[in-house]
Write a structure and sequence with these properties.
Elements: E1 6-9, E2 23-25, E3 32-37, E4 49-52, H1 58-66, H2 93-106, E5 122-123, E6 128-129
Parallel strand pairs: 1-3
Antiparallel strand pairs: 1-4, 2-3, 5-6
Domain Leucyl-tRNA synthetase editing: 19-79
Protein name: valine--tRNA ligase
EC number: 6.1.1.9
Length: 134
């Protein structure tokens, strides 16, 4: 979440048509994030809205490039949250999720947590989790 620069929805998704071109406020840093439309968003997946984190996801990088969005690298070369992460700087990426969830709960901003499947890139020689830095 800390590297998010926009929220994308499918341009034909009736639920969100009136939101395209508007903005949301990032819950951790107060930045204004645009709501954009992109044909690659699957309106049937999850809520139909996708947070765009271009520096850490290849698909999001392509969306950001199409929409002239910035990238924000928030995980440093050692796997810790960078100084761009305000109060979360220095937390290891594997511990960051629980910390962020706790803060969202404290702010009353967490509605639910639902599992979903996704592919994690694993480097075969060491079976290590690879991280994307675009």
């Amino acid at each position: 979440m800390l590297g998010d620069v926009a929220v994308a929805v499918h341009p034909d998704d009736e639920r969100y048509i009136n939101f395209i071109g508007k903005n949301v406020i990032h819950p951790f840093n107060g930045c204004v994030l645009p709501i954009i439309s992109d044909d690659t968003v699957d309106p049937k997946f999850g809520t139909g809205g996708v947070k765009i984190t271009p520096a850490h996801d290849p698909r999001d990088f392509l969306i950001a490039k199409r929409h002239n969005l910035p990238t924000k690298t928030v995980i440093n070369e050692n796997g810790y949250l960078s100084d761009k992460c305000f109060d979360f700087s220095g937390i290891h990426r594997f511990h960051a999720r629980q910390t962020l969830i706790k803060v969202l709960e404290e702010k009353g901003l967490l509605r639910s947590i639902k599992p979903h499947s996704f592919q994690l890139p694993i480097w075969q020689p060491t079976s290590s989790l690879m991280r994307s830095i675009c």
